[in-house]
Amino acid sequence: MILLKLRIQKVLRENHADFIDSLRLSGIDVKRGGWSADAVEQNAQAGALSLIQFASQESISDRCRDIFLWTIAENLDKEERTSVMAWIFTAYEWTGRFPPYAIIQHMVDPTLFYEFCVSLQKYLHMYLQGYFSRTVNIV
Q1: What is the rounded distance in angstroms from the CA atom of residue 99 to the CA atom of residue 92?
Q2: In sequence order, what DSSP letters do the residues of 38-56 get, joined into one string?
Q3: How far from 47 is each of 4, 15, 88, 90, 137, CA to CA, in Å?
Q4: Which of 19, 80, 83, 139 lies 20 to 30 Å from 12 when distance is taken between CA atoms?
Q5: 0.85 exceeded by the pTM?
């Protein structure tokens, strides 16, 4: 896991300016420390949808999809949330998918990262508990 964390830290360093700009475009001004809860919620919804779509590929069973999403959701409120992000990033890379920059970009600020993880966890739990159809766009 240490190597995965080092990899994601390298990606964060190399793309820091791009991540800051991307977040600013979504209403999150990291430089000034200003953002609304709505902007974070919207990004978390989009992040949850990305993870759901990733885990819902044709070659993945419903059981494996739910275990993948549950594992993420259950660990976002713990100190290991950085490891969870490294694991997500690696899963995308291993399958040849474009890295989930829209998810990991929130790691550039500790407070933002925490708020994003709380919201992301909420939306993943909603999906897993059936609050909306597994075929409906949650965003």
Answers
A1: 6
A2: HHHHHHHHHHHHHHHHHHT
A3: 20, 18, 11, 16, 12
A4: 139
A5: yes
